[in-house]
Amino acid sequence: MSSFHKSSLSCSSINGTKLKNNLSYVSSGIPSLDFVIGGGLPTSGLFLVEEDYLGSYSRVLTKYFLAEGVVCKHDLFIASADENPEEIVKELPQVCTLPSDDKVKDASPGNMKIAWRYEGLGQVESSFGSNTNFGHHFDLSRHIAIDIINKCNITYCHLTHNESKINSFKNDLYHTLLLKIKKTLLKEEYRTNSKNKNVLRISIQSLGSPIWMSMDCDDESHSTYGQDLIKFLYCLRVLLRNTNAVAFITIPSHLFDDDRIMKRLLYSADNAVRIESFAGSSKETNPVYSEYHGLFHITKLSAVYSLVPYVPPSLDLAFKLRRKKFVIEKLHLPPELQESSEREQDDITAVPKTCGGFKKKDIDF
Fold first, then answer.
1. Residues 208 and 252: beta-carbon distance below 8 Å
2. Quick one: pLDDT at residue 347?
3. Beta strand 326-330 with 93-96: parallel, antiparallel or unpaired?
4. Which of 112, 188, 215, 296 pairs with 331 at a CA distance of 20 to 30 A?
5. What is the pLDDT of residue 222?
């Protein structure tokens, strides 16, 4: 008799989850984001988002993550030191159906003609996850009613400094947050072998912002600040192990003086992305990026319960923030700009028939 046996997991019975490689996944609330990272966020995992300079787009991603939890009746744990977490849930987008303008219309070859040189090219899939059945679609122009929010099991954690001295952390905020998360994860419903299971969505906004550096003492160095942040994520990853919890953390990495801090933080993350906004940069007026609001970089994809990590169809990604939704698409040049760049390249490489714009008879020897 073989010593191997198939474990009977009932993770798929939890509302808003799916099984992949014998591991339960939850949706981030954005179908295109779920698609590019391999199907969603794995439970017991840690997802990092490097914020844009203004932090506006990273807040949108956080609202999607929390709104998906409200619709799926998951428990929420919201922590922030910069603002009151109770104010965050007041602007969660409302669930909706897929807008009609996003549905792909069939076009027969007889009704559509294209240039002969483009006939041999395959069709480029710009948008991702539009046809998936996992997760929900949300309308950013409408908010979830407060009555629905009040019925959810939400733990708010508004972090403030106190006078206590913690030896393990130079900043007491990290220790306080770890204790509250540990206390919440001890509940029976968040254990993988529990009968009455539920998912806990942990949201930590702007972890490592300047308020996390403020202390009683004034001689704090950036290296000590980085050590606290690295130690916190490592301890959080240990707490999440073998639980039905998912951590969604945004970090303002552009404020770090040392680039090595973010590189070490990625060791504790399962998946990580970086948002590059065009606001205030030269790319905002560049016609190449006129249809987008920023670039979307995938900085880490882990091999969870598999030998190799998931590889998305393209790593050249951009995002749009429309009036009602946030969408991630494949970045590509518009046909007009692509054709003009090819013409300019042909003009540069072409051999001129005259010398310096003059005919041979006009040159004096």
1. yes
2. 47
3. unpaired
4. 112
5. 53
DSSP characters for 344-356? Answer: HHHHHHSPPSSBT
Cα–Cα distance for residue pair 246/166, rounded to 1 Å: 27
Return the pLDDT at 226. 84
Tokens of 52: 């844009």
Q: Average pLDDT for consecutive 10-residue bins of the chain (365 residues)?
A: 49 80 91 92 95 93 96 96 92 80 46 50 51 83 93 93 70 91 93 87 94 58 74 95 95 89 93 93 84 93 86 90 88 61 46 45 45
- Cβ neighbours, 10 Å, residue 184: 17
Nearest CA among 42, 21, 32, 50 for reference residue 206: 50
Question: What SS3 state is found at 106?
Answer: coil
Query: Would you state the pLDDT for residue 331?
Result: 86
Whole-structure pTM value: 0.81
Other Cβ atoms within 10 Å of 365 Cβ, number: 3
How many Cα atoms sit within 13 Å of 329 on the Cβ side?
20
Whole-angstrom Cα Rg for the chain: 25
Tokens of 161: 């400094």
Beta-ladder partners of 121: none
User: Reduced to 3 DSSP states, what percent helix, strand and coil does the chain have, rounded to the nearest 5?
Assistant: 35, 20, 45
What 3-state DSSP class applies to 7? coil
Could you write out the three-class secondary structure of 144-200? CCHHHHHHCCEEEEECCCCCCCCCCCCCHHHHHHHHHHHHHHCCHHHECCCCCCCCE
- CA-to-CA distance for 323 and 85, rounded, in angstroms? 24
Closest CA to 244 of 193, 203, 204: 193
| Helix residue ranges, H only, the chain | 31-36, 56-71, 85-88, 146-151, 172-185, 222-240, 259-265, 335-349
